[in-house]
Amino acid sequence: MDIRIDNISWFPENLPEEQIVEDRYKDIIRKNYLKAWFNSIETSLVEREEVLCSKWWDDNEIYWLHRLNWEFSDDSKLGLRFDLTVPLARYVALNNDKLVYPFKRFQIQKVYRWERAQRWRYREFYQADIDIIWNWELPLLADCEIISTIFNTLNELDFWKFTININHKDFLIGFLEKLWIWEDKLLKVISIIDKKDKLDNDKINFPKTRALLEELLWDKEIVSQIIKFILLWNKWSLAKIEKFVWSDNELRFLDWFKKLKEVYTSLLNLWVPKRYIKINPSISRWLNYYTWIVFETFIDWFESFWSVSSWWRYDNLTWNFIKNKYPWVGWSIGLSRLLSVIWATSKLNYQIKTLTDVLVLNIDEKYLKKCLEVVKKLRKAWINTEFYLEHSKISKQIKYAENKGIRYVLILWEDEINRWVIAMKDMFVREQKEIDILSVAKIIKKEMKS
Amino acid sequence: MDIRIDNISWFPENLPEEQIVEDRYKDIIRKNYLKAWFNSIETSLVEREEVLCSKWWDDNEIYWLHRLNWEFSDDSKLGLRFDLTVPLARYVALNNDKLVYPFKRFQIQKVYRWERAQRWRYREFYQADIDIIWNWELPLLADCEIISTIFNTLNELDFWKFTININHKDFLIGFLEKLWIWEDKLLKVISIIDKKDKLDNDKINFPKTRALLEELLWDKEIVSQIIKFILLWNKWSLAKIEKFVWSDNELRFLDWFKKLKEVYTSLLNLWVPKRYIKINPSISRWLNYYTWIVFETFIDWFESFWSVSSWWRYDNLTWNFIKNKYPWVGWSIGLSRLLSVIWATSKLNYQIKTLTDVLVLNIDEKYLKKCLEVVKKLRKAWINTEFYLEHSKISKQIKYAENKGIRYVLILWEDEINRWVIAMKDMFVREQKEIDILSVAKIIKKEMKS
Question: Which of A163, A286, A434, B166 is in the most buried spot, having the most CB atoms within 10 Å?
C-alpha cells in the first residue's frame, strides 16, 4: 500500500469526461486536416541521438532511454521525440523516393520535453502538425492551404475571435532600409516594433515605443514615419494600402505587395472570412528565421495564443540528412496546451459527461432475452447503448443513469412487452412515454436529433 | 550526411498508404468499443518504477528514462508502460472515488517492450484494450459484453473464420477429479490436453495425445473416457451436451453447465452468430490463473492467433495499490501484430492509396478564383479535395492523380466555365463527362456512393 500512484508531475491525465473533449478535439482536427488532403502519418516514439541533436536543441530537455544490462548492438543511444518536425525530416529523408510530392502530411502525436515547471507547459503533450513538402519550389498556394486549414480547424474548435496577421518578410525591412536604417540598428528597431503591443496600451500614439525608437535613432521625423507606417497598416483597408504602396512608387514594394495580395485573395477564396485576416507589415517576430510570407495568430481573450499555435516556412526540410532539397511550410496546433487554456478560462462550449446515448435497465432475469435483443438492435444502428450489468432496483439504475449523464433510459416490463412497447424515460426533460418496440432504433435516432 | 536515418529495429513505421489501413482499423475498433458504452481513456506514457514492477515483469524488458544531469526531485525512477493493464490499475486506484461503476473503459495506445527479435514481435506496438471494473461482484453479463464487443470488432476487421471457445474453468477439473485424477497428475493431464491440437493431426483418435496420457495414467479405460469427453464437446450441439450433463447426474456439473449456458445464450442474444461460438471444456490454457469462465479465440488461417488477442478475468484489479476490491474482466486486441499478420498473409480486403477523393487541376492563373471556389464548395461538403499547388501541364497533373490513386479529377477551362460546367474525369473507369458547376458537391457525392 506504499506505492505512489499519484500522477507524475506535468504528465497530465484526463478523467473520462475530459477525455471525451480531448477525443472530440482530435477528431475535429483530423477531419479538417483530411478534408484538405493531408495524409496521416505516425512516427516512432524514439529517435537516435544523432537525429534528435541534428536540430539545435537543449540536450538537457531530452528524455533518453536506457535498459538494465543494455546491449550495445546496432542500436545507437535513443531518446524520445521532442517535436514532430525532426521526425518528419527524418521520415521524408528516409522515404524520399517512396513519397509522392507535393507531400502533405498531418501528424497528431504526443511529444516529450523535460521543461521547468511553468503554467501551460507539460512534459507530455499533444501536437497536431500539418506540413507541405515539395522537391521543387513551393508556391505561395501552399501557405494558403495551410492557413485556410488551420482557420477551418480553429474555427470548428469554438475558437471564435482570433485574427491571422500576414506579412511579407521583406516589407518592414524594405521600408526601414528606405529610411537608411541598416544592419545592427535595423535589428534593434525590428525588436522594438516586435514588442510594441506589449509596451504600449495606447495603440494610436505608442508613446513608449516612440521613446525607445527616438533613443535609438535620434531622429523624431524618422520615428514618426515608422509609427505612421505601423498605424497605416493596422487600420486601413486593402484598397487603401494598395493606393499607399502605389503612391510610394517603389517597385520592390509593389512586388512584395503583389505576393501578399495573392495570399490574401486566395485565403478569401478558400473560406477564410475577411474579418479574420489582416495584412500587417509590422509583424516581425520571425523575420530572421523564415523565408517569404510570415504569419501570426492572435486571440482576443488569451494574450499568449502564439504559444498554442506556431507556423514555419523553410527552404529545406531535410538538409541535415540528405542532399536533395525539400522546401517546406507548416503549422502546429499545441492541442494539450490549447485544451488546458480552454479549461482554465472556462471557454469550452461543449459539455457532455458520457457518449452513451441509451441505458437499458436490467429488471428481471425473465426479460433478459428481450432486453438484449433491444440492446443489439440499438447497437446495430450505431446508437451507443449500455445494458445495466445486474438486475437490481430500478431506482438504483435510474440514479446510475443520472450520475453518468445518460439521456435515454429504456424499461422493459411484462405488461409493456406484451403490448410490444417499451417505456422510454428522457432524463434531460424528465418525460416518460411508450415507444414501439419494433422501431426503437428509429425512434431514438429521431429523438437524439430533435 | 553521416547521420543514420533508417528505422530503429522493431520500431515499425508506416508509409502513408499503410497508415490509412492502420487508422481505419483504429477507427473500427474505437467505434465498436464506443457502441457498447466503453469510455475512452489515455494514460501517460511513463509510470513510476514501483508501479511498473508491482506486477510480475522482467525488469530487463522495461525501457527506463534518464536525463542529462537528472535532478532527483520529487520524481521516482520512470519507465515506459509495457502494457495497458498496469496503467489501468493505477488509474482506477488513483481516481477510484471519481469514477462511476461499473467502469467500462477502452484504451488504444502504444506500449513498449524490449523483446528479443522474433517474428510478429515489435518493441513499440498498439494495444486496444477493453475492460469492465466494478466495486462489486462482477456478473457474467460483463464477460458477455466483452466477448460480443470483441466479436463485433474482429468481424468488422475482415476477420472472418474465427471461433470463440468458451469453458467454465471447473469443468475439465471436475471431470478429471471424478476419474480420481488429482493434484500433480491433474496438472500434467491438463497440460497434455492443452497441447492436443498441436500434437495430433488426427482430430478423431488423437493417437499421440492418447499415447502420452496412457504413459502417464497406465489405464486405457480412463484415457478413453478422457478422449471421449473431449470429442463429445467438440462435436455435439448444446442440446446434446445438456443431455449428457443431465445423464451424468452430477450436481456440480449441472451448476457449471448452467453458467456456461447463460453466457452462451446471452452471446447469441447479443449478436454473436452460433457458428462463431463453441462450448469447449477442453480449453485449459488459463485454468491456473483465471476465475470463472475462460475463453480462447482460434483463427483458421493463422495458428497463433491467440498472440494477437488475449482475455483475462481477475478477482481484484487494484490489489497492489489500494484496499478496495475491484473485480475485473477484459480483452485486448494486439492491433500492430494483427496488422502485420494480415499484411504478411495478404489477407487484407481493403486497399486504397489515398483518402483524397478529388483533385482539382491548376491550369492557369486566370481560373484560380473559380477553382478555389470549387475546392471550397467540395470541402464544405466534407469531400476530401486537393488543389494542385502550381499551374503546370495537364498531363503532369493527371499523372500525379494516377500515382496517388485519386479517383476524380476536375478540370475548369474557359469554355466550360462560361457554360457553367466542369469536366470531370473518373480515373478508375477512365470516363470523362461534364457536370454542373453549381451542384458539383452533390454530383461527386452521388458518384462516390455508386
Answer: B166
Pair A258, A322 in one domain: no
Q: Where are the alpha helices (DSSP H) in A157-284?
A: 169-178, 183-199, 207-217, 220-235, 238-248, 251-269
Q: Confidence class of residue B289 from pLDDT cuts 50, 70 and 90?
A: low
What is the per-residue pLDDT across B188-199, written as a single tens digit (0 to 9) for each? Answer: 898 888 888 788
User: What pLDDT score was predicted for residue A233?
Assistant: 66
- ∠ CA A196-A199-A202, nearest 5°, is 85
**One domain for residues B334 and B290:** no
Residues A182 and A156 in one domain: no
Asked whether residue B167 falls in the same domain as residue B294, the answer is yes
Cα–Cα distance for residue pair A217/A223, rounded to 1 Å? 8
Range of the domain at A208: 170-272
Do A259 and A168 contact (CB within 8 A), yes or no?
yes
Asked if A46's CB is within 8 angstroms of B5's CB, the reply is: no
Average pLDDT over residues A432-449: 93
CATH number of the domain enclosing B388: 3.40.50.800
Domain assignment present for residue A295? The answer is no
- Grid cell, residue B387, equals 488543389
Count other Cβ atoms within 10 Å, centred on residue B184.
8
Task: Report the amino acid identity of residue B253.
Answer: F
Return the DSSP state at B36: T
Q: Which residue in B450, B425, B428, B424 sits closest to B436, CA to CA?
A: B424
Q: Which contiguous run of DSSP H or E holds residue B368?
A: helix B368-380
Give chain A's domain count.
Answer: 3
CB contact under 8 A, A51 and B269: no
Q: Residues with Cβ < 8 Å from A266, sequence gap 6 or more?
A: A140, A141, A144, B368, B372
- Who wins on pLDDT, A415 or B383? B383
Distance from the A404 Cα atom to the nearest Cα atom in chain B, whole angstroms: 7
Percentage of chain A exceeding pLDDT 70: 87
Peptide bond into B102 cis (omega under 30): yes
Instruction: Give the C-alpha separation, A41 to A99, whole Å.
Output: 12
* Cell numbers representing residue A290 in the block: 523564415
Report yes or no on A41 lying in a domain.
Answer: yes
Q: Is the Cβ–Cβ distance between B45 and A77 less than 8 Å?
A: no
Q: Are B182 and B254 in contact, with CB atoms under 8 Å apart?
A: no
The type of residue at A134 is W
CA triplet A285, A288, A292: central angle to 5 degrees? 90
Q: Do A34 and B98 touch (CB under 8 A)?
A: no
